[in-house]
């Protein structure tokens, strides 16, 4: 992996959220979580949930305000954080830089807490806690090639690969959180997205070089 070269062919952050929204709407229709109470917006990207009592009882992580953007973000952030945690947990045994190891431990701790909170929010929606993005190669998602390279690397090479993968992950986490803030609806989901986005920004700023 040599930085940007590994990212060729990946869609941009905004397009990713649009594609994930489309997949989420399809999943909702299949599982019966969406019906007349969920509709797509005029742009096709920012779908909104209707304000009916029926909708609030079946698809709400908060007070009846969850929309497909919220669901799409929850599922994507869960998948991204799960993959990132896998490589963060390799740092103690494979890395060389003590400062990077210490930083990675703090980021891993934060990701574990975020995963617990994200799963709680997703459970409240009634949508199954499955990973619809398993095996996907998307911006911010540690892919199979990167994971294998990191599992095989040691010392300074591991540190280089870890920095590259996490820089991409945290950058897109911050961007996706911003997109959720624009198009999301549920207060609890928006609050979690804002927190995760701020943490990603802080981690990026403090990453040892």
Describe the structure.
This protein has 209 residues and is an all-alpha fold. It contains 8 helices and 2 strands; from the N terminus they run H-E-E-H-H-H-H-H-H-H. It has a two-stranded antiparallel sheet. Strand 1 and strand 2 form a beta hairpin. The relative contact order is 0.17. The N terminus is likely disordered.
SSE class: mainly alpha
In the predicted model, the low-confidence regions spanning at least 5 consecutive residues are 1-15, 22-63
Which sequence of strands runs across the widest sheet? 1-2
Major sheet: size, sense and barrel closure?
Answer: 2 strands, antiparallel
**What's the overall average pLDDT, rounded?**
77
Percentage beta strand: under 5%
Helix and strand succession? Answer: HEEHHHHHHH
Structural Rg: 18 Å
- Any idea what the shape is? elongated
- What's the count of strands? 2
Share of helix, binned: 55-70%
Distance between the termini: 18 Å
How many separate helices? 8
């Amino acid at each position: 992996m040599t930085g940007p070269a590994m990212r060729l062919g990946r869609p941009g952050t905004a397009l990713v959220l649009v594609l994930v929204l489309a997949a989420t709407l399809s999943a909702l229709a299949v599982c019966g979580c969406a019906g007349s109470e969920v509709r797509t917006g005029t742009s096709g990207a920012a779908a909104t949930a209707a304000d009916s009592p029926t909708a609030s009882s079946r698809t709400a992580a908060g007070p009846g305000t969850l929309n497909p953007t919220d669901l799409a973000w929850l599922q994507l952030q869960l998948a991204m954080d799960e993959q990132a945690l896998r490589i963060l947990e390799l740092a103690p045994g494979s890395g060389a830089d003590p400062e990077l190891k210490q930083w990675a431990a703090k980021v891993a701790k934060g990701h574990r807490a975020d995963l617990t909170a994200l799963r709680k929010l997703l459970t409240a929606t009634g949508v199954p806690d499955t990973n619809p993005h398993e095996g996907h190669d998307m911006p911010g998602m540690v892919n199979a090639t990167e994971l294998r390279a990191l599992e095989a690397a040691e010392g300074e090479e591991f540190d280089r690969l870890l920095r590259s993968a996490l820089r991409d992950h945290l950058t897109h986490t911050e961007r996706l959180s911003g997109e959720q803030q624009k198009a999301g609806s549920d207060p609890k989901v928006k609050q979690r997205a804002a927190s995760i986005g701020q943490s990603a920004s802080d981690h990026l700023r403090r990453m040892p070089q």
